[in-house]
């Protein structure tokens, strides 16, 4: 394993130390509790937004802390949920007096730890917390017989759009409603060209031969839906777009937001090439793209590959997407 | 029969025995988790129980069983992370109120407390029997403990039966399809693998059988 680390055990804290040094105008970092706050938190009279999860998905979540998105993010160990103490501490410190929204990716550990934190926040601190669980990954069958769909690319969209709603002064119920609406109207599908290597383990999580790709992967090196021979980008785009379009009708509504997301090790050259293929497929399917985003946003360490997320938009969501945002990971309009 | 008292010192013995057992089986738990999960169950549980033992070492004399259980639960929630932290933490946190405020509890109260803890795990994880989770070991164990005590068995006899029931429940997870947690993403591919959570849960019950209600000279 070749990585830019010192002791693999210190990778999360040492990275957060770098985040703090790099963005002193935007962020304040509590290294002991592994919490990244926007510099002016708590913002009085504004609904607070908290997210968090295992590390290794950067810029998610710490890179999306700042005006117009999250008020704080809790970092767990690599691919391991943070613990309720962190979330409770962050919830207390970002509460602006009008309630806090927890944005939780649908993984068993994340959901349980955030549940406990929300209970503690209500019981011990008397804080009003609403939780929204993100589950947009069509690769997982959503049934009583699984832990449900995973939260992937839509998480970033929820953080941006709910963040803009909070910035506008919407109340907790209103901000939570935007978050749920975004999740309900978003679908994602991802693929891997290579596995990822967790620093503490030092070797790839799964073996993927040079001649094969894994379709329907998550963001923790979990297995995908199926393994297929390497194919041209045009065909891979089809493998990702088809199941998304099958799952939800994207031809209704006021057009879509299309996100082509890099898994960590795939260059923008290839991601834009993929975006071109995805856009062509959408046009052929009668889906109108009105907003787009291309880049590594919800990553899986050094995995190569990409995911496609589509969000069905309405006028309000377009306006919230265009609203100013000032974070390390997304910045426009300010 | 079943009128033995369990005090804070006895609970300490139970938790310390569980910690030793987790440390001994750390590699096994992680290997089972690598097959159908994310290969960290042994390491996470060992980290958590090591922290619990450190808390036990710092416990003031006169601590009640309820306070001890609460401390163990909070420590696990704080240190384990993932899904096991909230689940094992909830088990002990929900046992605490059922143990009341006394300096010791009788066998029936202990069984009720353990039952309340397991109910808490069910509520937290929303798992049912045969979902291939720790519930598959814990629920039969509580049933066997209660049945034994109701039949007039000693606490020790009832706990041995509970431990046997937990082991059988653990083994019965092997042919099941996982319906909760990360293993559920595998669907049918989870068949043939023993559930790591049920495995550590069986160790917890075995640790109780080896430490609680053991007669040490009246």
What number is the mean pLDDT of chain B?
93
Contiguous runs where pLDDT drops below 50 for at least 5 residues of chain A: none
What Rg of chain B, in angstroms, do the CA atoms define? 16 Å
Order of helix and strand elements from N to C terminus of chain B? EHHHHHEHHHH
- Main sheet specs of chain B: 2 strands, antiparallel
The outline of chain A comes out as globular
Tally of DSSP β-strands of chain B: 2
How many distinct beta strands of chain A?
A: 14
Number of helices of chain A: 8
Order of helices and strands of chain A: HEEEEHEHEHHEEEHEHEEHEE
Residue-averaged pLDDT of chain A = 95
Largest interface: A-B, 28 and 28 residues
Strand content of chain A: 15-25%
Q: Helicity level of chain A, as a percent range?
A: 25-40%
Main beta sheet strand tally, sense and closure of chain A: 6 strands, mixed
End-to-end Cα distance of chain A? 41 Å
CATH homologous superfamily (4th level) name of the largest domain in chain A: Dihydroxyacetone kinase, domain 1
Instruction: Give the full name of the CATH homologous superfamily of chain B.
Output: DhaL domain
* Broad CATH class of the largest domain in chain A: Alpha Beta
The side-by-side strand order for the widest beta sheet of chain A comes to: 1-2-4-3-5-6
Q: What's the CATH topology label of the largest domain in chain A?
A: Rossmann fold
Overview of this protein structure:
The complex is a heterodimer of chains A (334) and B (218). Chain A starts with 10 loop residues before the first helix and ends with a strand. The longest helix of chain A has 18 residues, at 108-125. In chain A, the strands form three sheets. A six-stranded mixed β-sheet of chain A has the order 1-2-4-3-5-6, with helices on both faces. Chain A has a six-stranded mixed β-sheet with strand order 9-8-7-12-10-11. Chain A has a two-stranded antiparallel sheet with strand order 13-14. Chain A has 334 residues and is an alpha/beta fold. Chain A has eight helices and 14 strands. In chain A, 32% of the residues lie in helices and 23% in strands. Chain A has two domains: 11-185 and 322-332, Rossmann fold (3-Layer(aba) Sandwich); 187-312, Dihydroxyacetone kinase, domain 2 (Hypothetical Protein Tm841, Chain: A,domain 3, 2-Layer Sandwich). With 218 residues, chain B is mostly helical. Chain B has one domain: Serine Threonine Protein Phosphatase 5, Tetratricopeptide repeat (Alpha Horseshoe). Chain B is built from nine helices and two strands; from the N terminus they run βαααααβαααα. Chain B has helices at residues 8-24, 26-36, 41-57, 65-80, 84-98, 107-125, 135-150, 155-171, 196-211; strands at 5-7, 104-106. The longest helix of chain B has 19 residues, at 107-125. The chains are: A alpha/beta (334), B mainly alpha (218).
């Amino acid at each position: 394993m070749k990585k830019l680390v010192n002791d693999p055990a210190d990778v999360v804290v040492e990275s957060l130390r770098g985040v703090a040094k790099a963005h002193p105008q935007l962020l304040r970092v509590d290294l002991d509790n592994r919490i990244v706050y926007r510099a002016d938190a708590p913002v009085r009279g504004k609904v607070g937004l908290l997210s968090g999860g295992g590390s290794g998905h950067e810029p998610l979540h710490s890179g999306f802390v700042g005006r117009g998105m999250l008020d704080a993010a809790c970092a767990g160990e690599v691919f391991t949920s943070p613990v309720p103490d962190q979330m409770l501490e962050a919830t207390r410190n970002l509460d602006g007096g009008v309630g806090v929204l927890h944005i939780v990716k649908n993984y068993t550990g994340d959901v349980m730890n955030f549940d406990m934190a929300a209970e503690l926040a209500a019981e011990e601190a008397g804080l009003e917390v609403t939780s929204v669980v993100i589950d947009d990954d069509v690769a997982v069958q959503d049934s009583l017989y699984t832990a449900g769909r995973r939260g992937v690319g839509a998480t970033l969209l929820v953080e941006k759009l709910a963040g803009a709603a909070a910035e506008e002064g919407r109340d907790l119920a209103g901000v939570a409603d935007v978050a749920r609406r975004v999740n309900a109207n978003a679908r994602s599908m991802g693929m891997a060209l290579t596995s990822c290597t967790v620093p503490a383990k030092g070797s790839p999580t799964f073996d993927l031969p040079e001649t094969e790709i894994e379709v329907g992967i998550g963001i923790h090196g979990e297995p995908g839906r199926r393994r297929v021979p390497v194919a041209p980008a045009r065909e891979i785009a089809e493998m990702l777009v088809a199941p998304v379009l099958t799952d939800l009708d994207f031809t209704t509504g006021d057009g879509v937001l299309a996100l082509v997301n890099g898994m960590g090790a795939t260059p923008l050259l290839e991601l834009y090439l993929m975006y071109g293929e995805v856009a062509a497929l959408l046009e052929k399917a009668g889906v109108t793209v009105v907003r787009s985003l291309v880049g590594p946003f919800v990553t899986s360490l050094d995995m190569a590959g990409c995911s496609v997320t589509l969000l069905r938009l309405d006028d309000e969501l377009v306006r919230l997407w265009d609203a100013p945002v000032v974070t390390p990971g997304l910045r426009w309009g300010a | 029969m079943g009128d033995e008292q369990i005090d804070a010192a006895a609970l300490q013995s139970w938790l310390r025995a569980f910690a030793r057992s987790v440390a001994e089986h750390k590699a096994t738990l992680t290997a089972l988790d690598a097959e159908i999960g994310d290969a960290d169950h042994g390491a996470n549980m060992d980290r958590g129980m090591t922290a619990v033992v450190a808390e036990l070492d710092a416990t003031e004399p006169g601590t009640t069983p309820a306070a001890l259980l609460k401390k163990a639960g909070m420590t696990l929630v704080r240190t384990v992370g993932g899904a096991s932290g909230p689940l094992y933490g909830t088990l002990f946190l929900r046992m605490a109120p059922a143990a009341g405020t006394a300096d010791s509890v009788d066998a029936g109260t202990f069984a009720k407390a353990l039952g309340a803890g397991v109910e808490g795990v069910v509520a937290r994880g929303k798992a049912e029997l045969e979902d291939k989770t720790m519930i598959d070991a814990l629920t039969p164990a509580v049933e066997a403990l209660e049945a034994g005590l109701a039949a007039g068995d000693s606490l020790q006899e009832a706990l041995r039966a509970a431990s046997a029931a937990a082991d059988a429940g653990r083994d019965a997870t092997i042919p099941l399809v996982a319906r909760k947690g990360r293993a559920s993403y595998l669907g049918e591919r989870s068949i043939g693998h023993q559930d790591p959570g049920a495995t550590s849960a069986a160790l917890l019950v075995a640790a109780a059988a080896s430490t609680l209600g053991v007669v040490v000279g009246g």
